[in-house]
Amino acid sequence: MIRHLELKAYGKINLGLDVVRRREDGYHEVRMIMQTVRVYDAIELNRTEEEGIRLSTNLYYLPDNENNLGYRAAKLLMDEFGIRDGVEIKMKKFIPVAAGMAGGSSDAAAILFGVNKMFGLGLSKQELMERGVRLGADVPYCIMRGTALSEGIGEILTPLPPMPQCRVLIAKPAVSVSTKHVYESLNLPSLGAEAHPDIDAMRAAIEKKDLSGVVSQLGNVLETVTIPENPVIQTLKDKMMEMGADGSLMSGSGPTVFGLFTNQTAAQAAYEELRYGSSQDLAKQVYLTSFYNRKGHADGEQF
Ligand code: ATP
User: Fold this and answer.
1) Which of 135, 159, 183 is a domain's end point?
2) Which one of 61, 156, 224, 256 has the fewest CB atoms closer than 10 angstroms to its CB?
3) What is this structure's pTM?
4) Using CA atoms in the order 102, 83, 91, 114, what is the torsion angle rounded to 10 degrees?
5) Rounded CA gap, 301 and 292, in Å?
6) Ligand 1 contact via 255 beta carbon (within 6 Å)
7) How remote is the CA of residue 68 from the centroid of ligand 1, in Å?
8) Could you tell me if the CB of 138 is within 6 A of ligand 1?
9) pLDDT band at residue 155, thresholds of 50, 70 and 90?
10) Residue 235 counted as domain residue
11) Which residue's alpha carbon is at the smallest distance from atom 24 of ligand 1?
């Protein structure tokens, strides 16, 4: 019997994010190129004899009840399978919160994976993804991970070949952004063609393993809303470019900014500048990381 599991819930960035249209029901249809990065929340699961779910996190402002997506993930499977034992979830957050990196969705994905394994439920990855979408549109992707095209409201996924590696600098400024507000403020009819990234061209570049092609296609239509409201995002993008990034973009609805660097020395210097240097006030959390790829990992790989 499995009594203890340690899981890594990786965050994501969007190499491309386009909004195609607003549906009658208010949801937005998107086309996004998703990429997992090696910044993760550390999640510990312990099986307990006492019934129920107990969750704790290292951040005082995060919910430890049903409002936490990780809690809801455990509950979904435990209710469905009538599990009588309990589970204790310890969550250590490193992925910036409410930042466009799908932290909550990734926690939910890892916990679905972990509860399935711990209690021997026998669900396939596909079956976990079908349940995950009830928790949030990005959850199925966080189960799949790697490089993928995401369409519909985020639930239609096409796995893509792994991205060529480079250094990925991630910086989260000290501003808060509401995803709901950003989507509601997006004025699609007023935008020119240049505001929309060419997702098909980016997909073609990824399939050709052409990193500079990907860099030339980086684009996020939500920048048209988030950047004018939070100029620090543009400042961060400019700083990364000035320090030798091949390209730089806002992830999701923001405010996290990432820079892609083929020059490792430049990436390290830019990291140090944002973390400890004269630009340290621009960002609250800074990580120098790399892409996480599915390549070489068998289906059902340990999270
Ligand atoms: P996305 O990239 O999908 O837009 P995000 O980065 O904007 O995600 P999250 O960090 O996933 O957003 O969480 C946003 C809100 O959800 C937070 O304000 C928080 O209160 C709530 N939340 C619930 N569960 C979690 C969790 N496990 N981790 C982080 N936030 C959570």
Assistant:
1) 159
2) 61
3) 0.95
4) -60
5) 13
6) no
7) 8
8) yes
9) confident
10) yes
11) 68
